[in-house]
Each structure stands twice: as C-alpha cells, then as structure tokens.
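About this split. The held-out portion is used to measure sequence recovery: a designer receives only the structure tokens and must propose an amino acid at every position. Recovery is the fraction of positions where the proposal matches the reference. Here is one held-out target exactly as it appears in the evaluation file.
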C-alpha cells in the first residue's frame, strides 16, 4: 500500500508531545459506556449527527489486519523493541481502548487551551452537550494518564473533527501520540559532569524554552525527541528519508515542532511534537518536583 492510499483512509497517525516533567499519583481516566451516547445526554448545544455517531465504536485501529491496526502494531513494536525499562520490560505502555466520549475539560481545559481559543468552536467539534464531546485529539487523555502515575505511554484512538471531506480529510480519523517523562537522573546520567545539571530554574520564557526549564534540559529533551521520532519515521518509510523540522505553536507544548518529510519532491507534514508545558503536568499538585 502506498502513501496516497493511506492518506485516503480515515487516518491521521500522529506521534506527539514528549516531555520532561513530574508524575502524580491518582487515576482519573474517565470511562464511559455506550449509554453515554444515548439521546438523553444531548441538549440544545449538541451538534453530533447520527452519521457521526454511527462511526463511534468501530475501533478500526483494533481490527486485526486492518491498515490502521497494521500501522499501530508497527509503531508499537518499534517502541517495544528499542525502548526497554529497567526491569527488561517495554518502557512504553499502550492505551488503545479509551472511550472517544470525553469531557470538555479533558479535551480543552486540561491542556491549557484558552476559553476563547478557535479550536473550541462548535463549527470545528462534535459536542454531545455542553459538558461532553467526541474527542478532537488523543491529547484529551494526556492529563489523566500522566496523573495516574504513568511516565511513558502511547495513546491510540479515533478522533472527531468537523472537517470538510477531501482526499486527505474526513470527520473521523485516527491519532497516535506518545508521552515520555524524564527525571533528572534519566536525562543527565550519560552526560559528562551531568551531576551538577538541573531540570528547573526560576528564569524567563523565551522562544526556545519555558521559564521553569533550564536551557541544558530543554536542549537534551529536544534532541531526544527529534532523534526518537526520526528513527520511528525511518522505520515506517525506509532509509534515505529526508526530514526537516519547523517551529510551530501548540497551547500545551513549548517549544513546539512539526516534522516534514520529502515525498515526491514536496515537503509533507507528518507529525507535531514538543516539550509539554510544565504547568499541565504540575496541575493539581502543591510541590512541582520531578519523579
């Protein structure tokens, strides 16, 4: 199957947001049954059509031998093989069965997306009611998974946006994203004289870093992030891949980047990523310390 055929599928497989940050203790992964999709939950704010609701629960990414399943398995196997934890088990856990019904708080507020941000518009999202919606990105589960105590995970799922249908857009598509949390030891252990380096400082936000992160930490996280994702894309598309990085903006990462690959003489965006906002990870804690 070539790239054009994959683009025409209902998919947008994206690897995003690796971060340095702390961990938290409590499990708050929202779980919804199919009853959450019943007409009873709708109110005058609802704009979900029956056509879109009929797509919920298909879970194409979990159907064995489906192209989406094949891509998911390829990415998962790559991470299982190349990133091993201290006990010899895979470093990254995989979550591919989380419900696409989320709260507005999960989809936007937990990611520091401002109330007046354009991405919240009804014209761009599918709302079940004023409080619940079909997730617009797998990032809607990020806060819950991090605050359950996970420090490295991949989240996979169907996502919903009110896109105009063309050869590369469809209202239902799929994302995969990864999150990695670094402790001070993990980040600096292989650096000469790394014992004196720190993750945090009381500094100033610039175009290259957050106010609370040291420049040394950001540079190492950025290097790790780009190296990991370049290896993954090479695994998927093959050797000789031409890659370039473009600075961009996301509300929940800083600095943020997009990766583009050269395909048939043109540069094509394949993923977005960045250093997660420390405020996102520390939210709800009194002591913003690293694990």
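Reference sequence for scoring:
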């Amino acid at each position: 199957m070539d790239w054009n055929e994959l683009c025409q599928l209902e998919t947008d497989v994206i690897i995003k947001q690796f971060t340095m940050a702390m961990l938290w203790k409590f499990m708050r992964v929202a779980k919804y049954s199919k009853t959450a999709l019943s007409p009873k939950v709708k109110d005058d704010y609802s704009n979900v059509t029956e056509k879109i609701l009929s797509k919920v629960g298909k879970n194409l990414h979990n159907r064995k031998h489906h192209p989406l399943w094949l891509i998911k398995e390829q990415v998962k196997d790559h991470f299982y093989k190349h990133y091993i934890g201290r006990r010899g088990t895979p470093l990254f856990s995989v979550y591919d069965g989380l419900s696409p019904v989320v709260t507005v708080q999960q989809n936007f507020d937990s990611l520091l997306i401002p109330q007046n941000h354009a991405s919240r518009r009804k014209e761009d999202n599918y709302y079940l009611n004023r409080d619940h919606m079909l997730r617009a990105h797998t990032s809607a589960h990020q806060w819950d998974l991090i605050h359950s105590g996970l420090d490295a995970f991949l989240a996979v799922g169907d996502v919903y946006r009110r896109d105009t249908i063309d050869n590369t857009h469809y209202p239902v598509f799929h994302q995969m994203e990864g999150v990695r949390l670094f402790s001070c030891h993990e980040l600096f252990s292989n650096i000469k004289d790394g014992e004196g380096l720190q993750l945090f400082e009381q500094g100033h936000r610039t175009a290259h870093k957050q106010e609370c992160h040291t420049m040394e930490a950001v540079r190492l996280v950025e290097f790790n992030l780009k190296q990991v994702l370049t290896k993954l894309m090479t695994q998927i598309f093959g050797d000789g891949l031409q890659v370039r990085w473009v600075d961009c903006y996301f509300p929940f990462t800083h600095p943020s980047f997009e990766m583009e690959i050269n395909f048939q003489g043109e540069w094509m965006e394949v993923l977005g990523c960045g250093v997660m906002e420390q405020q996102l990870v520390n939210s709800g804690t009194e002591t913003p310390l690293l694990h």
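Annotator remark: The helical segments are 3-7, 50-53, 67-82, 104-107, 142-146, 184-188, 215-237, 278-282.
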